[in-house]
Amino acid sequence: MAEKPLTLAEKVWRDHVVVRGEDKDGQRSPDLIYIDLHMVHEVTSPQAFEGLRLAGRPLRRPDLTIATEDHNTPTLEIDKPIADPISRKQVDTLRANAEEFGVRIHSLGDENQGIVHVVGPQLGLTQPGMTIVCGDSHTSTHGAFGSLAMGIGTSEVEHVLATQTLPLKPFKTMAITVNGTLKPGVSSKDIILAVIAKIGTGGGQGYVLEYRGSAIEQLSMEARMTICNMSIEAGARAGMIAPDETTFEYVKGRPHAPTGEDWEAAVEYWRSLRTDEGAQFDAEVIIDADELEPFVTWGTNPGQGVSLNDVVPDPKNFHDPGERESAERALQYMDLEPGTAMKDIRVDTVFLGSCTNARLEDLRAAAEIIRGRQKDPDVRMIVVPGSHKVRLDAEAEGLDEIFKDFGAEWRFAGCSMCLGMNPDQLAEGERCASTSNRNFEGRQGKGGRTHLVSPVVAAATAVRGTLSAPSDVLQPVPA
Amino acid sequence: MEPITTHTGIGVPLKQGNVDTDQIIPAVYLKRVTKTGFDDALFASWRKKPEFILNQEPYRHGSVLVAGPDFGTGSSREHAVWALRDYGFKVVISSRFADIFYGNAAKNGVLAAKVAQPDVELIWKELEKEPGTEITVSLEDCTVRCGSVDTTFDIDNYTRWRLMEGLDDISLTLRHEDAITRFEETRPGFKPKTLPVKV
Ligand code: SF4
Predict the structure, then answer these.
(1) Residue of chain A with shortest Cα separation from B108
(2) Which chain B residues are Cβ-neighbours of A269 within 8 angstroms?
(3) Nearest CB to B170: which of A36, A162, A266?
(4) Which chain A residues touch B173 with a CB distance below 8 Å?
C-alpha cells in the first residue's frame, strides 16, 4: 500500500516521534517528540534550571542547547552593569546557570549575542526539518527553514532541559497560499499583516500554518523569517515554509552547517521535506500578492490593520459585536478618529528592530529609502540590529553611517523597544511606527501607541513624520 | 515530588468562592528567579489584614485548605500552586477547580480534592466549632474525614496515580528513557550541535 500523502509539518513530526501516544476512551494521549535544538534566554529559564537543581537532575543534552541574552539587555553603554536590578539578576542568573550546566552562552558584547531568533539562523544552527523550541512565542521564526519551531512555557523548558523531549498533542494544518508578485515597496511584513487581518488573531488556533505559493517562493530567507515570526500573532502553534534552493544557499557555509558528505546527506533529506501531492490540509487560505499594498495597523492587536492608502475604520461598520467593541476600545487607546487617512497620522518615534525585522536585509532596505535624505526633525528614530553580528555586518557596509547621517540612533543588539522590559520604552501617549510584531496596549511602554509596519514603511515614515509608503518619498507628490 | 497516600493536617476554612490566582499570589511576585520560597507570597494582600484566617492561631499551621467553589480561576500562573505548596498546603478542597489550576496542582504534588458543596459547608462548621480540627484525606479510598464528617472526593484515575506515585511530568517522561536513548542513536549525523563552539 502506498504511504498516505503527508504535509510538510506532518513529515517533520513523524520523524521526531519517540513514543506514540495511546488511544484510550476515544482520546489520544500526546506523542513524545524529540527536540533537536533548545534555545534559552534570561526571562523564561531561571525557574527551569532551578527545577533541575531541586530534583538533582542533569541537563540531558548541553550540546543541543544554546543561550543568549536579549530581552532585558540595554542597547546603549553595554559595557556598564545593567541598571535595573531585576533585569541584572535575570541576566546574572542565566550566566550562572549556563556555567553550572555547561550551556554555551552568548553574552553582551559577544558577536553572537542578540535576539535568540536572529542568532539561531545566523549560526546555521537553524536548519530544515528540525524541531526547535524556546521559552518565547516568536520561536515560530525558525519555521522559515521548514522546521517545526514552537514557543513553550517555563515548565516545558525544564522538561526539555531534563529529557530533550516534549509530550505534544498533534495539531491541525492550514495552508496559506500566496500567489503572484509583490509590487515594489511591498514586503513580506505586509503579507503577514494581511494574513492576520484576514484570518484574525485567533484564526490559526490549534494549527500549524504552511505558507506556500509563488510569492513565497520568490522571497529571501530573511523575508520568509518575518512571515513565520508572526504566525503566533494569528494564534497558530507554528508556521512553516518548505525548504528549497534559497534555504540551502542560506544555510551553506554557516558555522554549524553540515559539510562534505554530511552536507550531501542533509540536502537529500531536506529535499524530501515538501507537502506531498494529494496531502490534505484541514483548512486553506488564499492571498493574492499582486493586490497587496503596504500595510499598517490602526488598533491594539496585530489583526487590526489596513492598507496604508486606507482610512481609520469606523467601529460602527464591524458587524460582530465583539469586534466592534474591541475596535472602539482600540481607537480610544490609540487616540484615533474614524475616517482619518492613515497617511495623515503623525508619529513621534520610529523603531527599526526586533526578531521580526532587524536582520541585515531589513536594515539595507530601510537605508536604501533614507540614503541622502533628512529625517523629519520632530521624529526620533532608533535602529537596533537583531544581533551584534548584524550590527558589525551593517557597519562593514557603511549602513550605520547612513542611519547616523539621517539623524537616527544606532544601537547595540537586543529586543529593545519591542517590549517594555528594558530601558528602551515609549513614554505615555507617544506614538510609534514599529517594525516589531505586537501592538498590544503598553507593549512598548506604558501608555505607548504602536503602529506595526515594514522596515521600508518605517523608513519612509521617519522621512515625512507621518505614516508613509516608500513611494511617497521616492516620487515627488504631483502638484 | 513526594508521593501522597494519606495526609492528616489542620483544616483551614476559606469561606469564599472564586478565589482567583491573582489573590492566591499577586503579580508582583512573578518577577523572581526562583521556584521555591513563595510562602510569603501566598494570599499576600489578604494576609495584610489581621483578621485573615491564616493570621490566626491555630489555622496558621494548616495544611488542608477548604475553599468555596471555583478555586484557582484567572491567570494560568503556576506560581499559585508553588505558593500553596511552599506555605505547607498539601491538600486543597473545593467543589470546583479551574482547569489549569487543577492541572498545575497535580504537576506539583498538591492534591486538589473535589468535594460536594454541602459537604464543604459541613466541614467548615466542624473547623469553626473546634479550631485546629484535623482533616484526614486518603487517596487510597478517596475519602475525607473531619470530626463527624465522613465523605468522599472526586479525582480522575490518572491524577490519583501520579500523586500516589509522586511522579512529576519529567519523571513520567523519564520512564521512556530507553526509548529516548534509542531514538538518539538513530538521529542523522548531519543534525547540528551547539558544542563544541565553532565560531
Ligand atoms: S524581539 Fe520582541 S518578539 Fe522578538 S524575542 Fe524579543 S521581545 Fe520577543
Answers:
(1) A155
(2) 188, 190
(3) A162
(4) 32, 159, 162-163, 165, 167
All residues at 6 or more sequence positions from B172 whose CB lies less than 8 Å from its CB, including other chains: B162
Q: How far apart are CA A31 and CA A34, in angstroms?
A: 10
Q: A167–B189: do the CB atoms touch at under 8 Å? A: no
- A123 to B199: CB separation less than 8 angstroms, yes or no: yes
Atom 2 of ligand 1: nearest residue by CA position: A418
Q: Are B104 and B80 in contact (CB under 8 A)?
A: yes
The answer, as to whether pTM is greater than 0.95, is no
What separation in Å is there between the alpha carbon of A438 and the centre of ligand 1? 9
> What is the CA(A414)–ligand 1 centre distance, in A?
8
- How many residues are there in chain A? 479
Question: Residue A475: which pLDDT band, with cuts at 50, 70 and 90?
Answer: low
Q: What is the distance in angstroms between the Cα of B140 and the nearest Cα belonging to chain A?
A: 24
The alpha carbon of residue A200 and the mean position of all alpha carbons in its chain are separated, in whole angstroms, by: 17
> pLDDT by residue for chain B (199 residues), tens digit each?
889 999 999 999 999 988 988 899 987 787 788 888 999 999 998 999 999 999 999 999 999 999 999 999 877 788 999 999 999 999 999 999 988 889 889 889 999 999 999 999 999 999 999 999 999 999 999 999 999 999 999 998 888 988 999 988 899 999 999 999 999 999 999 999 999 887 6
Q: Compute the radius of gyration of chain B from its Cα atoms.
A: 20
Peptide bond into A385 cis (omega under 30): no
Do A62 and A101 form a contact (C-beta atoms < 8 A)?
Answer: yes
Which protein residues are within 6 Å of ligand 1, measured from CB? A 70-71, 115, 117, 136, 138, 354-355, 415, 418-419, 436-437
Instruction: In whole angstroms, give the CA distance from residue B79 to residue A303.
Output: 31
Provide the residue count of chain B: 199
Distance B160 CA to ligand 1 centre (A): 39
Q: Which of A170, A166, A101, A176 is nearest to A131 (CA)?
A: A166
C-alpha–C-alpha distance, residues A50 and A15, integer Å:
31
Cell of A290: 499582486
Written as nine digits, the cell of A404 is: 547616523
Please tell me the distance in Å from B10's CA to the nearest CA on chain A: 27
Q: Which residue of A has its CA nearest to B181?
A: A18
- A72, A92, A165, A393, best to mutate vs chain B, most B CBs in 10 Å: A165
Residue A474: per-residue pLDDT: 79
Of B180, B188, B191, which has the smallest distance from its Cβ to A165's Cβ?
B180
> A389 CA distance to ligand 1 centroid (A)?
17
Q: B105 CB contacts (<8 Å, ≥6 apart)?
A: B72, B81, B84, B92, B97, B111, B112
